[in-house]
Write a structure and sequence with these properties.
Elements: E1 7-10, E2 15-16, E3 33-40, E4 45-48, E5 53-54, H1 56-62, E6 65-75, E7 80-90, E8 115-116, E9 121-122, H2 126-132, E10 138-139, E11 144-145
Parallel strand pairs: 1-7
Antiparallel strand pairs: 2-5, 3-4, 3-6, 6-7, 8-11, 9-10
């Protein structure tokens, strides 16, 4: 018997076992393999045929880990041969994750000092002089604004 393998599969995926490399030493005399008996994980699953498929549901039932797989072949005269391999089942479900250093990551935000806004100077025009009857410069009251830079990112505590 030749069970192929070792086999590797992820959860939620099927896999095909391949015992087609098995041969009967008496093939020249007309003898041949007539049955393929697969035992997965000590008989938890029993399959037959040279290339049986373990379904995704069967893989999930077996769960993550390394499982023994054995194949026993029987020829026309009842002679048997057995061999074993392994089936490794992994959970490679993608997971989004990141780590920032330091944790929590934050950029400092500094306030700039108060800066006066320069007064606006208006130059009288003929229309404004005609309406007011005066000429001169009008000043607006000085306003103060606090200018603060925009952070590139905010503090995000990571759990």
């Amino acid at each position: 018997a030749n069970p192929g393998g070792p086999y590797v599969v992820d959860l939620d995926n099927p896999i095909t076992l391949d015992g087609s490399g098995s041969s009967d030493p008496n093939a020249a005399a007309g003898d041949s393999i007539v049955t393929y008996h697969w035992s997965i994980n000590g008989g938890v699953l029993i399959l037959s045929g040279p290339t049986p498929v373990l379904t995704a549901a069967q893989i999930n039932t077996l769960g993550v880990g390394v499982r023994p797989v054995s194949l026993t072949v029987t020829d026309e005269f009842g002679a048997t041969g057995s061999a074993s391999t392994t089936l490794s089942i992994y959970d490679n479900t993608p997971v989004a994750a990141f780590t920032a250093s330091p944790n929590p990551a934050a950029l400092p935000v500094r306030a700039l000092p108060l800066m006066p806004v320069p007064p606006i100077t208006t130059v009288p025009t003929a229309a404004s002089s005609a309406m007011s009857g005066t000429s001169g410069t009008a000043l607006r009251a000085v306003e103060y604004r606090q200018l603060m830079p925009m952070p590139l990112s905010a503090a995000i505590p990571l759990l």
